[in-house]
Amino acid sequence: MSKSSLEANLIYIKSNFGFIPSEIKNLENSGILFSESINKIKQIETTMYLAPNVIGEKISNKLKNVLMNNNGFKVLKNISDILDGENITSMLERVFRKT
What we know:
Layout: H1 3-17, H2 20-28, H3 34-49, H4 53-68, H5 71-83, H6 88-98
């Protein structure tokens, strides 16, 4: 790999993914609300989706697959949606159907 190619790759990484370390630090903050942390992860996913070219697409797809296959994250996301009132209708329908 040539020096100019390496520099170009580092610039690409920094400009498209340089936000990740600060977002991880924000997620580690103990004072952050649960719903805020889930929303930050959604924002990271959206921002990574916008990264251009095949490399950006591969990285975005990798994150998407990791999150989709993480059952714990699915549960946390559902809890966050309920706390935000997004799934309240379907939850109430399930509760009242059982009675």
